[in-house]
Amino acid sequence: MVKKWNAGVIGCGSIAQALHLPGYAKHPAVDLVAACDPVRQRHAEAERFCVQRMYTDYREMLAREQLDVVSVASPNRFHAEHAIAALNAGAHVLLEKPAALSMKEIAAIKAAVKKNKRILMVGYSHRFQRGNLKAKKLIDAGAIGEPYMIRVRFAHMGPLPGWAKSDWFYRPELAGGGAMLDMGIHAIDQAIWLVGPVRGVQAMQATLRKEIRVDDNALLLLEFAGGRALGYIDVGWTSPAGFVGLEVMGDKGVILIDYAQGMYLTTGKVTANVKARMVRKTRLIDPAPTTGGWPAEVPELIKHIRMGSDRGHGIDAGGAALAVALAGYESARTGRRVKVAKGL
Fold first, then answer.
1. Could you confirm whether domain 5-124+294-312 is CATH 3.40.800.10?
2. Cα angle for residues 209, 339, 151 (degrees, 5° grid)
3. Which segment of 161-165, 204-208, 298-302, 314-318 scores lowest on mean pLDDT?
4. For the chain, what is the radius of gyration of the CA atoms?
5. Is the pLDDT of residue 11 over 90?
6. What's 109-148 look like in SS3?
7. Mean pLDDT score of the chain, rounded to an integer?
């Protein structure tokens, strides 16, 4: 008989209602036994996912329930606190991004993972989109040669109004940052995942249009370890339209993933080598590259648990992206290039 995993969710806002609650409710190997949120209105909204018991305090939930897996979908400020508590209660964890707000918190989460011998997966949903998974396989197989440039643009109109249940995204004491930490953490993770570790950052961040206390737009220039690749990231909360996706350029080809138009692979002599003959071939790889994403996260987590491995999606990945984002904020503040903190 296949083991049933008892699941709980900490935080029942928009991301929980879009991803975590329905993900557990639909999974045949999971029983959604509990969820908690300090706001009573969230309880009523979570009821449609057939949660067996609701709590207002996560500590009470963890003490009373025998949970095998817990999603942490609370505001950023509480990610480390809630993840560590769930790990110490014996649960595996699906942790929303950013994994924490400081490298000290990352170290504490990593220690809790090791101490409790649990699996923790950071919710980098873009990794589980079909196009990005194909890009990773193509790059690892050498389809475009050695990557030397990546550009990423992730932008939308922002969490509020229209999506978020409250304004916590715009409150620095709860969010820790704005677009650079929200959209940017996904973009940074994609850059690291597809190209490699980042050693230096130059960045600008600004609040251009929204009347909020965090950045609504940010630009980052990345210098990858080894000095053989660069990157460019553009993220924002003020974009009603435009390109969203990424492009990776290598010595033998280019992968372009337009989230609205499809994924394309161009191969041939595409570098700036003046002696090369410019012969190119472009083909459509996937017309719907964003397939997957949120709906894939819970099944991936259960797969990770069964395999006994975070499969590279764990707290080290969470820390690597956070270190770049923190360096980006420091660069924006000082106007200087900032070295990225080394891994823990």
1. no
2. 55
3. 161-165
4. 20
5. yes
6. HHHHHHHHCCCEEECCHHHHEHHHHHHHHHHHCCCCCCEE
7. 95
